[in-house]
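User: Here's a chain of 141 residues. Predict its fold as tokens.
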Amino acid sequence: MFALDPRLQNDTLPIGEFPLCRLLLSNDSNYLWLILVPRIAGISEVFQLDAGDQSRLWHETTTLAQLLNDGFGADKMNIGALGNVVNQLHVHVIVRKRDDAAWPAPVWGRHPAVPYSDDQVALIRARLRELMPPEFTFAQD
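Assistant: Prediction complete.
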């Protein structure tokens, strides 16, 4: 049975569900940083997914990246699946801007996280509602 890693649960806010992945917002307003987590128990690596789920993960990742790039005015999109701290397979999709807190360096460990306000989260969710494809289901706000 799928269960979200406690570290992801503590550090993120739920956004919704693609057919394969749960979509989370990293609770760090320094960057617009979303995380896709395939809802499959016991998976830590992409190669552990069957070919269909690998394809679906890549489709959901690239769809999200393009929507964020276009809808939030990214200068660069960062996509990564590291898993060195959180073993559960998850993919980071981060909107990078030349004026963000860490540019041009990686975001990890650069600055302390600054949690979003309720109003900031509401604005992000509202914008995502305009952008997301029909197969995406939003979590309850």
